[in-house]
Amino acid sequence: MILKGGFKTPGIFNFWRRGWFFLLALALVACIPSRLNLPQSPLFHSLERKSGLIVYVGQDGNIYTLDQEGKHQTTLSGEVTAPEALVGRELFFQFPAWSPDGRKVAFVGFVSSGPIIEEVTLYTVSRNGQDLVEIWKSSEQFPFYLYWSPDGKRLSFLATAPGASQATLQIVPAGGGEAQVLGTGAPIYWDWSPDNHTLLIHSDKSSASEDEPLLAFLNIRAEGKEPVEKKLDVRPARFQAPAYSPDGDELLLAGETGQAGNEGLLLLDKEGHIKKVLASIEGPVAFGWSPDGEWVAYVNGRDANSPDAPRSLVVLDPQDPEGTRTSIDEVVVAFFWSPNSQRIAYFVPSQGTNTASPDSNGSSPTGPELYLNLHILDVRSKKSLLVASFQPTEDFVNFLFYFDQYQRSATIWSPDSRNLVVSARRDQGKSGIFIVEASGNLESRYLTNGILALWSGH
Asked: Pick from 265, 403, 427, 443: most CB atoms within 10 A?
């Protein structure tokens, strides 16, 4: 049995690792002025060129898609909700994930009876709501993170069980079939190679009997056979998700440089050999490649227990790391590259006292509330623009806790790099999905009720 409710904030990630960016950020927000709420406007949205689709978790527990105008809504989980399946039980859904080509969505369904989760099922479905496939089911463990292979033929996921100290990394064919356990960790992060059969794994604890962190390649070319593990000769620093370059020829991770225990952001070849140190680091670091592979961005700061520590978002050329750099000296807690590699969306916390939503009637609860300021950095001009401020939903905050891992598998950017989708709190306990225009020329607007939304890659 699985206790209902535990799935929202996976306990498999140690709290200090889950929150080191946010803990530091919250210690610093007192000196940052509050901003306005997300505005909304009905103007212009019907004239916009549509780009991709948005998948979101509705407040009713279903998974939907719609376009950026808020039209053409499709219920992806609709075929699951047969009345006979709900007698005395509740059915709800979480954790949607787009396939790389944007044609399918994977998501997790939960069946509960009172406070107990009785059954968990992994589904894939076409973006039009057709071809629903049940690909994995369990009454003992549940998935909380889904990550498609680059070719969309397999789905990797993390699953945990009540009382477990570690998560299991598993893989299953996207059309259904036998799942394979690839490894365990607490926590565990990974990136797919573009070759579709190699994973780069980072785990703080690779097994119940080992305390040493693990950095390794995992080859899963032969389906049904045991994966072949090859450890990297690098001692990791404090980071979460490793990253393949878009072409698969290089790797990014953080580790010891070999010089008196110094740590750095490292560029490695695809065999795992260090090519160069891109930057010296101190404390936790999170990073990501631009989609075209020409740039690397990273956030670095000292320990979250040092509130006076400097923090910044840095953008550099991995082939010329000592050349021109862009540095944003703010308390950046998460960032996401635009698909065209020209912009970076980044989030800075702000403490405000007004929790009124975009369609507020003017009343608001008392007491400080956390807001996020969304900025857009133009990489070439190095100019930054504040485009929106909002109070995030709990699910969106959880998404940002692990933004470096989610960068590998999801995006909040539209495919044409013109808009972003965010999930914000509204009045009377409601949560909404909002479209933010990246240039800042148009007001942000409310789409629909929901707790988390992601844009398709195509």
From this structure: 265
State the CB neighbour count (10 A cutoff) for residue 383. Answer: 10
Report how far residue 253's alpha carbon sits from residue 293's, in angstroms, rounded to the nearest whole number.
15
- Counted residue by residue, the chain has a size of 458
Q: H/E element holding 15? A: helix 15-18
Name the 3-class secondary structure at 396: helix
pLDDT-based confidence at residue 300 (cuts at 50, 70, 90): very high
d(CA 92, CA 60) in angstroms, rounded, equals 8
Choice among 12-21, 50-59, 251-260, 344-353 with the minimum mean pLDDT? 12-21
Q: Supply the pLDDT for residue 88.
A: 75
Single pTM value for the model: 0.87
pLDDT tens digits, one per residue of 402-415: 999 999 999 999 99
Q: Where do the domains of the chain lie? A: 2-455
Query: Which tens digits make up the pLDDT trace of 383-405?
Result: 999 999 999 999 999 999 999 99
Examine the pLDDT at 261 and tell me if it is beyond 90: no
Q: Longest Cα pair distance anywhere in the chain, in angstroms?
A: 65
Q: Are 454 and 55 in contact (CB under 8 A)?
A: yes
What does the block give as tokens for 293?
A: 């592979």
283: which residues sit within 8 A by CB, 6+ positions away?
20, 238, 300, 301, 302, 303, 309
Cα distance between residue 127 and residue 395, in whole Å: 22
The token duo for 33 is 């002025």
Q: How many other C-beta atoms are found inside a 10 Å radius of the C-beta of residue 166?
A: 20
Peptide bond into 227 cis (omega under 30): no
The rounded distance, in Å, linking the Cα atoms of 333 and 402 is 10
Q: Report the candidate in 25, 27, 75 with the shortest Cα–Cα distance to residue 55.
A: 75
Q: Is the pLDDT of residue 303 over 90?
A: no
The pLDDT of residue 260 is 76
Q: Tell me which of 1.10.760.10, 1.10.1200.10, 3.40.50.10490, 2.130.10.120 is the CATH number of domain 2-455.
A: 2.130.10.120
